Amino acid sequence: MKTAKEIVEERKKKGLNVLKIIKKMRNLSSVIIHLAFAALMTNDKKLAKKVLELEEEMDVLQYQLEMEVMLATRNENQAKNFIAINRIASAMEDLSDAAQELVDAIIRGFPVEPSVVDALREEAEIKIYNVTKARFAGKKISDLDGTYEIIAVKKGDEWKYMPKEDITLEVGDEIILRRK
């Protein structure tokens, strides 16, 4: 985890602001939750460990947000507005903490209850596909229809999270999709 001094220096370099951080937190919390569900559905330890890594990144973002809010507050009205922002950020952080708890069983090597997996497959707005020639192979992420957002792509043994639009899908890749 970064020290307070490192975070302040990074803030100065990147010119971070409250809105940018909140947007990052919103996007990251969504990815964390969907990856946690995918890890449970597939019993995939690598995905579960990635959830933990991203949750640590969420912790850093929340700290950065708190710093920005403190530095930006100049009067009582601003302070009242920033309280709401801090509460929203805290809720997103709580979601990522819950996702971390969900994948803990996978990391510890405990089997996931089949009824949980079945419920996730029925109710989760995520799908996990193996790329076949007919459907996705040879297409860039940017070429796919806008019904789903690709959360992650597995090429060989390596997962790419929040993949860029220019990645070309190949036969054998796995993709985690979220309905928009």
What does this entry look like structurally?
The protein is of the alpha+beta class. The protein has two domains: 4-107, Phosphate transport system protein phou homolog 2, domain 2 (Methane Monooxygenase Hydroxylase, Chain G, domain 1), CATH 1.20.58; 125-179, Alpha-Beta Plaits, CATH 3.30.70. It is built from five helices and four strands. The protein has helices at 4-14, 18-42, 45-72, 76-107, 114-123, and strands spanning 126-130, 148-155, 158-161, 174-179. Strands 1-4-2-3 form a four-stranded antiparallel beta sheet, with helices on one face. Helix 2 packs across helix 5. The longest helix has 32 residues, at 76-107. The two termini are 32 Å apart.
Short description:
The chain has 180 residues and is of the alpha+beta class.
Question: What is the CATH C level class of the largest domain, in words?
Answer: Mainly Alpha
Structural class, by secondary structure, is alpha+beta
Domains, number: 2
Q: List the uncertain runs.
A: none
Q: How far is it from the N-terminal to the C-terminal residue, by CA? A: 32 Å
CATH topology grouping of the largest domain: Methane Monooxygenase Hydroxylase, Chain G, domain 1
How many β strands by DSSP?
A: 4
Helix run count? 5
Strand order of the largest sheet: 1-4-2-3
Beta-strand residue percentage: 5-15%
Provide the residue-averaged pLDDT: 84
H/E element order: HHHHHEEEE
- From the alpha carbons, calculate the radius of gyration and give it in angstroms: 18 Å
Which geometry do the CA atoms define?
Answer: globular
User: Could you give a short account of the major beta sheet?
Assistant: 4 strands, antiparallel
**CATH architecture annotation name of the largest domain:** Up-down Bundle
According to CATH, the homologous superfamily of the largest domain is Phosphate transport system protein phou homolog 2, domain 2
Q: Helicity level, as a percent range?
A: 55-70%
